[in-house]
């Protein structure tokens, strides 16, 4: 057995106080996101964990890249026929989480996922490099395949087929917009007395702000 009980760290880099937060969690997320980006410690600031409830009844989490956020919510892109796509189709309740170790911060977002418009998906797909476009076409994400060679050979066929041609977005590939219902901000503090501030969406489009015990 690997005993990790002595792995400890004192969190002392910042604080999260009600006197210094906006009324809207998206504004605070924007502030934190760019502070982490400016800090320069995280390789991919937009890397987030997406958790879904699978068709087998088990939760499953995986890391994907956030591609846009606004007052409407958070957008990422994937294969709609993938395991997470099928899970979202059956149960659109999802959780997004960001862990920015360098600044001792975490954000957890509970929300409802829905497909973006075809226009939004088309515009993003068109902005991708050709290699990424072909990767989206060739990969039947989450399906069992015989080998990596199988993927590589199919990619070569597609490269020849689309040489000098526009690559259309597959109908089963596109974006999800996650509309937040609850957003929790976690700031590491000394002695495990961490700051936890939770925003909960209200029917009048305002947010209730509460402090949680660490």
From TrEMBL:
FMN binds at residues 62-67, 77-78, 84, 106, 141-142, 186, 196. Residues 173-213 form the Pyridoxine 5'-phosphate oxidase dimerisation C-terminal domain. Residues 44-157 form the Pyridoxamine 5'-phosphate oxidase N-terminal domain. Pathway: Cofactor metabolism; pyridoxal 5'-phosphate salvage; pyridoxal 5'-phosphate from pyridoxamine 5'-phosphate: step 1/1; Cofactor metabolism; pyridoxal 5'-phosphate salvage; pyridoxal 5'-phosphate from pyridoxine 5'-phosphate: step 1/1. It is an enzyme of class 1 (oxidoreductase). The keyword Ribosomal protein does not apply. The keyword Oxidoreductase applies. It catalyses: pyridoxamine 5'-phosphate + O2 + H2O = pyridoxal 5'-phosphate + H2O2 + NH4(+); pyridoxine 5'-phosphate + O2 = pyridoxal 5'-phosphate + H2O2. Its EC number is 1.4.3.5. Its cofactor is FMN. Binds 1 FMN per subunit. Substrate binds at residues 67, 124, 128, 132, 192-194. InterPro entries: Pyridox_Oxase, Pyridox_Oxase_CS, Pyridox_Oxase_N, Pyridoxamine_oxidase_dimer_C, Split_barrel_FMN-bd. Keywords: Flavoprotein, FMN, Oxidoreductase, Pyridoxine biosynthesis. HAMAP family: PdxH. Homodimer. Catalyzes the oxidation of either pyridoxine 5'-phosphate (PNP) or pyridoxamine 5'-phosphate (PMP) into pyridoxal 5'-phosphate (PLP). Belongs to the pyridoxamine 5'-phosphate oxidase family. This is Pyridoxine/pyridoxamine 5'-phosphate oxidase. It comes from Flavobacterium ginsengiterrae.
């Amino acid at each position: 057995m690997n005993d990790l009980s002595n792995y400890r760290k004192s969190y002392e880099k910042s604080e999260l106080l009600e006197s210094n937060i906006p009324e809207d969690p998206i504004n605070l997320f924007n502030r934190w996101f760019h502070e982490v980006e400016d800090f320069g410690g995280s390789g991919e600031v937009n890397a987030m964990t997406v958790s879904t409830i699978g068709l087998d009844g088990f939760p499953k989490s995986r890391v994907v890249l956030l591609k846009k956020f606004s007052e409407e919510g958070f957008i990422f892109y994937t294969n709609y026929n993938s395991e997470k796509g099928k899970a979202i189709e059956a149960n659109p309740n999802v959780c997004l989480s960001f862990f920015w170790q360098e600044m001792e911060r975490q954000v957890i977002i509970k929300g409802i996922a829905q497909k973006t418009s075809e226009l939004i998906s088309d515009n993003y797909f068109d902005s991708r490099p050709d290699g990424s476009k072909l990767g989206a076409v060739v990969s039947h994400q989450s399906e069992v395949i015989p080998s990596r060679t199988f993927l590589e050979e199919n990619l070569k066929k597609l490269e020849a087929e689309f040489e000098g041609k526009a690559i259309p977005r597959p109908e089963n590939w596109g974006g999800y917009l996650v509309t937040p219902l609850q957003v929790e901000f976690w700031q590491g503090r000394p002695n495990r007395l961490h700051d936890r501030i939770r925003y909960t969406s209200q029917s009048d489009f305002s947010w209730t702000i509460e402090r949680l015990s660490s």
